[in-house]
Every structure is written in C-alpha cells, then in structure tokens.
Design brief:
The chain is built from 13 helices and 8 strands. By secondary structure, the protein is an alpha/beta fold. Strands 1-2-4-3-5-6-7-8 form an 8-stranded mixed sheet. Helix 1 (24-31) crosses helix 2 and helix 2 runs parallel beside helix 12. The longest helix has 17 residues, at 285-301. It is globular.
Length: 379
Amino acid sequence: MARAAGGGPGPPSARPAAPAEGAARPLLARCFRPVSAETAPAAAVPGAGEPANGEANMRSEEPVPLHEEFIYCCGAATHVLKCGPWKDLSKDESKNLPRLLFMIIPGNPGLAGYYRTFIQALYCGLNQQYPVWVVSHAGHCKPPSGMEMIEDTDIKELEDVFGLNGQVEHKLNFLKKNVSKDIKLVLIAHSIGCYITLEMMKRASELQVLRSVLLFPTIERMAQSPQGKLMTPLLCKLRYALYMPVFLLSFLPEGVKASLVRFALRGMKTCDESSITTSINLFSVDCIANILYMASQEMMKVVERDSTTIKQNLKKLIFYYGTGDSWCPQHYYDEIKMDFPDGDIRLCEKGLRHAFVLDASKEMAAMITDWLQDDLTKL
C-alpha cells in the first residue's frame, strides 16, 4: 500500500477562432456534452504522449477537448484535467500560447473529477478562447496502475506535501513548472481552495492574477462553523477509526461501489454523473487518508481571516457566499461585507449548495462567465 500523510494518512498550431460577440450562452448549449467514462480520453501517465488507444483528444463526436493527466508534483500523485486544445503552457518561445489560463483550485475532497462538468461548461461559456484547468490536491486521487501515491525518489521535494501548507506550495510549484510566467491567471477557488488561493497570492505576488473568484469561501473560523463543530472531533481525534471500514469497502466490485455512492446521494433531485464516478476514489484508503489529514489541519489552522491579503488584493477578488452554508454561514458574509464595503462580495440568491459541483456546475459556470465579461473585454 502506498504511503499516506501523517503516518497513515504542444500547444495547438492555432488558437480556436472566437465566435461572434455575445454568443456565449447559445454556444454553451450547443457545444457542451458531459463526458462519460466510456467517451473520456484515456489518461496520460507520466512520460506518455497521446492516449493509449491512439485517438486524438479532440474527436468529432466530442466537441469539448479534454485532456487528462496523472503527474507527480512536489513528489505527490496529482490528477490534472485540461479543457481546451492546449496541453503545454510552459514554452515561453511559443507564439501560440493563450493570454489567459483559468485554473480551478478545488475544495476538499480535492479530486479533479468533481469539476469535470464545471470546466467544460466554463470553457464553452468563454467561447472556447481560453484553457480551463483543474489540478487536484496532492494525494487526492487514486493513481493509475503502475503509479504510486508518492514518487519513488530519494529527493524529498516538500515537507508534509499532504498538509494544508504543502497544498499551497503544491499549486505554486505546479504553476512554476507548467505555466509560462507571461500568461495571466484567473483563479477560481472553491471552499478551502479559497484559503489556498489567498495564500498563493500572498506568497507569490509575482503571479499575474487578473481575477480570483472565491466560491463558498472557507477562509476563517472553520472549526467554529456549524459543520466544523460537528466534524472537528471526528477529524482531529477519530479519523484513524475510519480507515478500517474504508479498507474493507475497497474490496467491493466497482459496480457495488457506484451503487453505494448513488444511495448516499439519493436525496438529490439531480446529480452530475461525473461526481458519482469520481466518488468511487473515496473507497481508496490512501486517498481518503490524505483527504482527512488535510481536513484535520483545516480545522486547526483556518482560524483568523487574512484581512491584510484581502485588502491588498481587493480589486482582484470576487467572493460568493451561500445563504444556508454550514461551513461559512451567512454572518461570515455580513462581517466581511462590513469590513470591505467596496469589495465585490456577493450572496447567493439561487439556493446553491456548498458542494455545487454535485448538481449545479453549469449554473455556476454561467454566472462566473457573466461576472468576468468586463475583465475579458479589456484584455
């Protein structure tokens, strides 16, 4: 079994032509189609080129090009989903690099697959002009056969890569190695990803961040939130007790695991199919150990809001709070709105859940596209 945290736990030849102005919504309906496990491109493991089946990632029957990779970043297994024809954004000499990258910083669990529908919808809403990538948290994925959770090397790239601080450095390292410094960034963060994004902006002021969109931001007093009060004892004192049942469930057939996930989500009117497929990763002991380890650190370390970093970057930030969010309750919104009256701080009027990726990815993508229209026209 791979080790887990805490002792347990070429660019395209030409950019796509932009559709006529104002065509975002019709285009979204026309080009978006969820990618099922059967139609998704094969994963590209480290050192691999095209998918094993030899088919191009952009196929006539799949209008949205989606490239999938499992790589090592800071020595930890990392899952990357890249929407759009751009696979490599690190070559400074290339004349075909896009001006802007949309990068998704996930919540916890930080599995990239939960955001598959979201990045496809966002890519289409942006008229297919810009790449949209999502990078999993370190160790929050089940690596493909032949790949371990931790890279087999004597070089230790980062201390405690699975911890909260390590996840911040993990994202900065990914950008440094995989994205040209000349490319501007739109960082779209979800839940604890919002804390990570603020830390990234604080530690690497040289990043060309055009805008950071912080969705359901858990950036303060997590252990004091209604959900935090319930989860802190479990995460900080009893998490090891969860490993044995997960280990036993890991031996179940994939079909049975999928049925259990569907049963757990049975109360939802609609559920993104990719979320069900992705949730099967949670039956991996190594994956769940890293998820719970990071969550335990969140309860202990996400205490005071970093108002200094927010003030320094206020014009680049958009906050979006939920009305019934038990991780960042509405009075957190009221307080930050009072402290930063000039900030772009919004309260959800649509009743979206904290885990919006389960059933509202397209709706959220459409809203973000609208919010960023002025920024994109100024590029």
